[in-house]
Amino acid sequence: MSDKAAATAMPSGEFDFPGATDLIALVAEAVEEDSPDAITEKVKNGLCQVISSEGFRLPAEFLEAEADHYARRLVHSDPEGRFSIVAMTWGVGQGTPLHDHCGLWCVEGVCHGRIRVDQYALVERDGDRFRFERDEAIPAETGTAGCLIPPHEYHRIFNDRDDEVAVTLHIYGGDMESCNIFDPEGDGWYRRERRALGFDA
After folding, report:
1. CA-CA distances (angstroms) from residue 96 to 26, 93, 132, 154, 173?
2. Is 201 among the domain residues?
3. CATH assignment at residue 182
4. At residue 190, what are phi and psi to the nearest 5 degrees?
């Protein structure tokens, strides 16, 4: 029998599992800070502590990858709209296109496996066309976390392992219901396209 915790689906579609209550409480406290830098630093440090603690256990279903896309599951949406927490499951080879967070700060932590985060710098814009330069590729292991604060919010996430599912937790400064993705056109130019974001069961 698996030692992973079973998740309880809340009436709102949210999930409850060991460690989730502590995580929600620490984020609720952190968003009272007076700047995005202070908020994200406090959330990042607290998230690393929670996901590395003995009391934190991922639900078994969070370890099950979807066949044709990375999975998004809502862990919590703050009733006051101050933040949301989303779990993402990345199958082998799955990743995102280059995208932004529509102006929301974000803290991302790795709960299982490993991901690679490719960061990009915006260097030029012409209407809905954007030119980016790839900044750096950051390997992120279990127990680590990083943050994005606009305008430095352009990146890709990718599970570059060939043998293991990865699971990450993403904490946003609001409900991220859509984002902009950027389709490559060549010579560093990308065309912006709005994309709605949904949740998997």
Report:
1. 28, 10, 16, 11, 20
2. no
3. 2.60.120.10
4. -135, 150
Domain count, the chain: 1
| CB-count exposure of residue 2 (10 Å: 0-12, 13-18, 19+) | exposed
Give the domain range for residue 126. 15-196
- Of 99, 102, 2, 129, the closest CA to residue 58 belongs to 2
Say whether 105 sits in a helix, a strand or coil. coil
Three-state SS at 78: coil
- Which residues, 6+ apart, have CB-to-CB distance to 104 below 8 Å? 150, 153, 172, 173, 174, 176
Q: What is the pLDDT along the chain (201 residues), one digit of tens a residue?
A: 233 333 444 334 578 899 999 999 999 999 999 999 999 999 999 999 999 999 999 999 999 999 999 999 999 999 999 999 999 999 999 999 999 999 999 999 999 999 999 999 999 999 999 999 999 899 999 999 999 999 999 999 999 988 899 999 999 999 999 999 999 999 999 999 999 999 997
Residue 2 forms part of a structural domain: no
Contact 165, 89 (CB under 8 A): yes
Q: Do the beta carbons of residue 100 and residue 86 sit within 8 Å?
A: no
Tell me whether residue 194 is exposed, middle or buried, using C-beta atoms within 10 angstroms of its C-beta: 0 to 12, 13 to 18, 19 or more: exposed
